Amino acid sequence: MNHLALLLAVCVAALAAACSGGGSVPTPPPPAGGFSAANLKGQYAFSMSGQDGTTGSFFARIGSFTADGNGNVTGGVEDVNTALNGPQLKTFSTSTYSVQADGRGILNLVNPSAQLSFSITMISPTQGLIAETDLTASGTFILQDPATFSTAGFNGSYVFDVSGLDPGGAPDSIVGQMVSNGSGTLASGVLDENDNAVASGAQPFTGGSYQMDPTYGVTSGRGLIGFTANGITYNYIFYIVSASRIRMMETGSTALTVGDAHSQSSVPTSNGTFSGSFVLLTSGSGTSGPLTRIGRFNADGGGGLANVFADTNDAGTVAQVPKGSLSAAAYAIDTNFPGSGRGTLTFTDSSLGIFSFVFYLSSPSGGVIQDVSKNNVDDGNLQMQVGSPFSLTGLAGDYAASFTGVSNNGSTGVTAEEDYVGHLNFANTSSNSNVTGAVDFSEFSSNQGAFFNIVVSGNGLSVGGDGTTSSGLRNALQLKLNTSPSSTLDFVPYVVDSQHMWIAGTDSNRVISGTVTLQAP
């Protein structure tokens, strides 16, 4: 989920110059891998958000498209919400796509008002990454299960995370749990809202319902859902992915939040049933502008935290935790809402202050997390770290990568979002050239705007056995973008497991974060 995009409507980051474009650039070698157009076949639900090129404000789109496996999109429908036009429902006519052997490709979707242009990278035949290149936005697409396109297809307990803007245009994050009875009613629920750095605390639902769209419900999984908590009614369009997931976008008001809901199972109900090593990644708004936080901790099964590490980038100010001494490191599963998966997590760094979070678990191994530290509005994911010790040997392979951030052109003063999607290969070597690949990206603070088939090289990847540190130092991932002039992106990666890394930028000239996921053609 693209959380950093919303900041462009509420702040201007003091960041250094971005790529300028121009000149000659190297051509990527012929793509290698096992993907083709045949891997993109079926009906897919997409969700993305970014920066509206007309108004410069936050916007989102969710919907469904059908690919035939031969390069044709045979139809679909989308909901797009912009500050200029508000929520609009549009259908797709016959459109096209292509997929290269490395999973990278192009998707063009035609609606009644425009042709939309996207770069994509396949993770597998069931999911992929997507970035809009005529504007600048990013997100994901996931294969749908049409058998679940009914009222009964949304049934049980779900954890959700949506973020965006409140009615006044301030950053807003909502995380929570909702329970559907499978027949149109939300039987219960609870949420935490962090609206413009004012945290609501746990707020139980006082009502809620949902219904399938009579026109596009059966064909695309589209429906409407609404719930009330703390005297506020929240209304969303949703698209069913499967019985375990829906995609949501706020509608019917000047507020705009977007995100997903995931089904729950066997969630911890006490401190003693929550333990292990976990990685977190959040992005949003901090004290000075765009913010991203990445970290890990060990929950001891008794309310205590150990081995706490984190990296933060607050409008270009980079810091590592621990910077000073750590204290008051604790978590608590909320017994006031049993079965909700709600919990709190906090620790204090003597140099950086208090870090406070609320989380909702979808299972014992992960969920969603919201930062409620002072002056912050950021949220993201929490996932158990498994498979250590990690090594370059175990991580070697082909990956789909997506990262998004905010940059400012030092020459023109233009501040804009940047979105990257592409393919990376990690080689089984500790040399300075163990990462290769190619990316497409939109960087509308630059003179060029969109960049295609950019060769990636650089000093590569280093990892420690615990997935967080390497020989006492943080893991590192450096990507050289062979634009003209070239530029380098520096990340700290936290290894979740042998198939997933979460990354956050450590450069002072941009704020960026994302995911790197092993491909499976």
Give a concise summary.
This protein has helices at residues 217-220, 392-395; strands at 41-51, 58-68, 72-82, 86-99, 104-111, 114-124, 127-132, 136-143, 155-165, 171-181, 186-195, 198-199, 203-212, 222-229, 232-242, 245-250, 256-263, 275-285, 290-300, 305-314, 317-321, 326-333, 342-349, 353-363, 366-371, 377-384, 397-408, 415-426, 435-443, 449-462, 469-470, 473-474, 476-481, 487-497, 500-505, 511-518. The chain has 521 residues and is mainly beta. Mean pLDDT is 91; it is low at 4-18.
Task: Write up this protein.
The protein has 521 residues and is mostly beta strands. Among the domains are: 114 residues, Lipocalin, CATH 2.40.128; 127 residues, Lipocalin (Beta Barrel). The chain is built from 2 helices and 36 strands. The longest helix is centred in the middle third of the chain and has 4 residues.
Beta percentage is over 45%
CA radius of gyration is 21 Å
Give a count of the beta strands, DSSP E runs of length 2 or more. 36
Q: In order across it, which strands form the biggest sheet? A: 21-20-19-18-26-25-24-23-22
CATH architecture of one domain: Beta Barrel
Q: What top-tier CATH class of one domain fits best?
A: Mainly Beta
Work out the helix count: 2
Q: In this structure, how is the largest beta sheet organized?
A: 9 strands, antiparallel
CATH topology of one domain: Lipocalin
- Apparent shape: globular
Strand pairing plus helix content: what structural class? Answer: mainly beta
Share in helix: under 10%
List low-confidence stretches: 4-18
Instruction: Give the termini separation.
Output: 23 Å
Rounded mean pLDDT score: 91
